[in-house]
């Protein structure tokens, strides 16, 4: 018991340090402006907050629509037990993207302007509408958990009757949103490095989001199983890993096609910063995960699966940072590395996400009770209770 | 009537009178640096003794206007591309996307604006000419309708083929611009990053943006279709299972 308490205080301490530094950086950002709080410049107008908080944040929230589509559109009932937590992860993810935008936008009080000031030709206009609409959809998809807690039956029934239209809207909006983040860069063919510039960018962004959504759900399940002493639904997560593997395979084909069509061989086989970053991203984000996730032994081991999916997520983050930062450095002939206050705000937002998830999962029925107590053999996989997992470690 | 400015690099003497006139017009301080910034909307760059005046190109189909989510940029009928800070939400996509790297940002302000040349739109509306053109003592910048300027540029190239590099920069670049350049050498040797397509850059996003309405319609239909089929299949399977059970029960009862 004592060891556990120590562990908790360690993470507690980390959390509070992040919060204190985050509050300092927040005050700096909103009293002295973007110039004081960031390393952004006219040459590098988008930095960590766009590259990580927004591009990665939206992508990592993709689990919500992937699982919702599996459960309701494809009628795969077995994924139902992980749906609420996937929806919660996605909902919090989108809320945090909006928080990040409030930091990043020069005039955040005008954030609502796209509602009444239209420019349908702009990809950013599409992005803005997708954020607004999909956050609303996620809020509605999340609301039954709240209604259930408050025992409000009528609104629960109304939402339930709207489930299918909501899920369809959610899938459409997500497809548009995930791909549009790639489309943002279609307009800079002369600025973005050829390794990353491609007319396929929207499709590549969408595919990698589909791959990383289940990966995030797996990581979230693994971590919350440790935090809440739940069992891991390994049989579900291991089947879900196939979604990641297949999406990454399609991604692989599309990227190889790009390499051939855009004649990228001289770029990727030269010893330059960009080519090294590309290979790192491609190995970590695509090749290694495919190799690991197609191995059924790894897929069925909870730790193996966790590590494999963690690698998928890291590769995904590398890709987004490469497109948004690395790929633009040679054109601007200026480097960009985030100021510590930028990093601190990002950590602050991530920490808030973790705290919010913990709080909500504690008080709302995010994890269905029947799953918590179930210890059965399903489809040949044994569901191991978390207590036993801990026993193994001790 | 569309106006523009013809800039003849061979005539610029580097007196910076245009910079001063521009600073006065915008109430900006006069600076020692000669590069575009949040307080400098025109600048005369020195490329080893060749002076290159820079300012917003006022594209015919501006990338900034295309990417702005709230339409804060607008190509006016008179030619200038103007910016409305009251619409702007500060996403800085314009800065990221501009093929000529023109828009700058007031990074140190709490209510920051994007800054760039507006070809003195207010003056043009009153029938006057832009401040920088008025101030230029060497006629390195001349103001006129775009047709006039193209004629003039062609005439200069034809009359002095040994002086000019035979290319009017801005005629086709990025779909054409209201600012045209004449020079004695290609502009990529004078600090212009030119690998620009001859179509407006918005062409590259239009291709994907135009698919959205179709996608929503077809995607939505397809998803409902899949839902309908999988749901029906599930129901059928359940009914078949029930039927089987009932049959087996019947058999058992009969046997008994």
Structure description:
The complex is a heterodimer of chains A (394) and B (256). Chain A is an all-alpha fold and 394 residues long. Chain A has a single domain, classed as Formate dehydrogenase/DMSO reductase fold, CATH 1.20.1630.10. Helix content of chain A is 75%, strand content 1%. Chain A has helices at residues 2-32, 34-37, 48-60, 63-73, 83-104, 113-116, 123-150, 153-161, 163-183, 201-227, 234-261, 265-268, 273-293, 296-300, 302-332, 340-363, 369-373, 386-393, and strands at 377-378, 381-382. In chain A, a hairpin with a 2-residue loop joins β1 and β2. In chain A, α1 packs across α16 (340-363) and α9 (163-183) crosses α10. The longest helix of chain A has 31 residues, at 2-32. The termini of chain A are close together. Mean pLDDT of chain A is 90; it is low at 370-382 and 388-394. By secondary structure, chain B is α+β, with helices and mostly antiparallel strands. Chain B has 2 domains: 3-205, Alpha-Beta Plaits, CATH 3.30.70; 211-255. Chain B has 8 helices and 9 strands. Chain B has helices at residues 17-26, 63-67, 93-97, 121-125, 131-135, 146-159, 202-209, 212-255, and strands at residues 3-8, 43-47, 50-54, 73-75, 81-83, 104-105, 114-115, 141-145, 179-182. The mean pLDDT of chain B is 94. At the A-B interface, α1, α2, α4, α7 and α9 of A face α2, α3, β6, α7 and α8 of B.
List the helices and strands and how they pair.
The complex is a heterodimer of chains A (394) and B (256).
Chain A: H1 2-32, H2 34-37, H3 48-60, H4 63-73, H5 83-104, H6 113-116, H7 123-150, H8 153-161, H9 163-183, H10 201-227, H11 234-261, H12 265-268, H13 273-293, H14 296-300, H15 302-332, H16 340-363, H17 369-373, E1 377-378, E2 381-382, H18 386-393
Antiparallel strand pairs in A: 1-2
Helix pairs in contact in A: 1-16, 3-5, 3-15, 3-16, 4-5, 4-9, 4-10, 5-7, 5-16, 7-8, 7-9, 9-10, 10-11, 10-15, 11-13, 11-15, 13-15
Chain B: E1 3-8, H1 17-26, E2 43-47, E3 50-54, H2 63-67, E4 73-75, E5 81-83, H3 93-97, E6 104-105, E7 114-115, H4 121-125, H5 131-135, E8 141-145, H6 146-159, E9 179-182, H7 202-209, H8 212-255
Parallel strand pairs in B: 1-9
Antiparallel strand pairs in B: 1-8, 2-3, 4-5, 6-7
């Amino acid at each position: 018991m004592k060891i556990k308490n120590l562990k908790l205080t360690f993470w507690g301490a980390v959390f509070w340090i992040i919060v204190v530094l985050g509050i300092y950086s927040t005050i700096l950002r909103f009293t002295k402006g973007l110039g004081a709080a960031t390393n952004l410049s006219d040459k590098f107008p988008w930095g960590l907050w766009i590259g990580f908080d927004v591009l990665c944040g939206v992508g990592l929230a993709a689990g919500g629509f992937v699982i919702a589509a599996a459960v309701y559109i494809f009628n795969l009932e077995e994924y139902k037990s992980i749906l609420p937590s996937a929806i919660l992860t996605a909902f919090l993810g989108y809320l945090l993207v909006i928080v990040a935008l409030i930091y990043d936008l020069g005039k955040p009080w005008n954030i609502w302007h796209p509602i009444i000031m239209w420019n349908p030709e702009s990809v950013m206009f599409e992005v803005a509408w997708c954020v607004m609409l999909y956050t609303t959809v996620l809020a509605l998809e999340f609301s039954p958990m709240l209604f259930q807690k408050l025992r409000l039956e009528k609104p629960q029934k109304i939402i339930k009757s709207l489930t299918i239209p909501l899920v369809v809207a959610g899938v459409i909006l997500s497809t548009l949103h995930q791909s549009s983040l790639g489309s943002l860069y279609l307009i800079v063919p002369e600025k973005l490095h050829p390794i990353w510039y491609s007319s396929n960018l929207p499709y590549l962004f969408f595919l990698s989001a589909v791959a990383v959504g289940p990966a995030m759900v797996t990581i979230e399940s693994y971590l919350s199983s440790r935090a809440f002493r739940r069992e891991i639904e390994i049989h579900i997560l291991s089947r879900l890993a196939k979604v990641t593997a297949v999406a990454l395979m399609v991604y692989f084909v599309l990227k190889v096609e790009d390499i051939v069509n855009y004649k990228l061989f001289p770029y990727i086989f030269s010893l330059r910063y960009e080519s090294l970053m590309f290979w790192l991203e491609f190995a970590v984000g695509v090749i290694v995960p495919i190799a690991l996730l197609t191995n059924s032994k790894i897929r069925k081991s909870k730790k193996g699966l966790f590590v494999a999916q963690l690698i998928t997520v890291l590769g995904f983050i590398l890709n987004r940072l490469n497109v948004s930062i690395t790929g633009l450095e040679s054109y601007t002939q200026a480097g960009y590395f985030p100021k510590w206050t930028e990093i601190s705000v990002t950590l602050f937002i991530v920490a808030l996400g973790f705290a919010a998830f913990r709080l909500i999962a504690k008080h709302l029925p995010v994890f269905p009770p029947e799953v918590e107590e179930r210890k059965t053999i399903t489809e040949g996989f044994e569901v191991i209770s978390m207590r036993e997992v801990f026993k193994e470690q001790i | 009537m569309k106006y523009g400015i013809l800039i003849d690099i061979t005539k610029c003497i580097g007196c910076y009178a245009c910079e001063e006139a521009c600073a006065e017009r915008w109430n900006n301080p006069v600076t020692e640096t000669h590069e575009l910034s949040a307080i400098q909307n025109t600048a005369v760059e020195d490329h080893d003794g060749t002076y290159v005046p820079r300012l917003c190109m006022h594209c015919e189909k501006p990338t900034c206007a295309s990417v702005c989510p709230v339409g804060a940029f607008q190509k006016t009928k008179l030619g200038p591309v103007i910016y409305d800070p009251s619409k702007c939400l500060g996403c800085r996509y314009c800065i990221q996307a501009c093929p000529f790297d023109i828009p700058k940002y007031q990074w140190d302000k709490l209510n920051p604006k994007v800054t760039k040349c507006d070809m003195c739109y207010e003056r043009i509306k009153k029938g006057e000419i832009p401040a920088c053109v008025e101030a230029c003592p060497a006629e390195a910048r001349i103001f006129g309708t775009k047709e006039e300027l193209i004629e003039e540029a062609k005439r200069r190239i034809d009359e002095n083929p040994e002086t000019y590099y035979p290319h009017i920069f801005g005629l086709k670049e990025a779909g054409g611009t209201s600012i045209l350049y004449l020079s004695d050498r290609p502009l990529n040797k004078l600090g212009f990053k030119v690998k620009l397509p001859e179509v407006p850059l918005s062409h590259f996003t239009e291709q994907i943006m135009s698919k959205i309405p179709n996608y929503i319609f077809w995607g939505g239909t397809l998803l409902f279709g899949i839902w309908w089929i999988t749901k029906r299949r599930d129901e059928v399977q359940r009914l078949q299972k029930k039927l089987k059970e009932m049959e087996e029960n019947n058999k058992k009862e009969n046997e008994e």
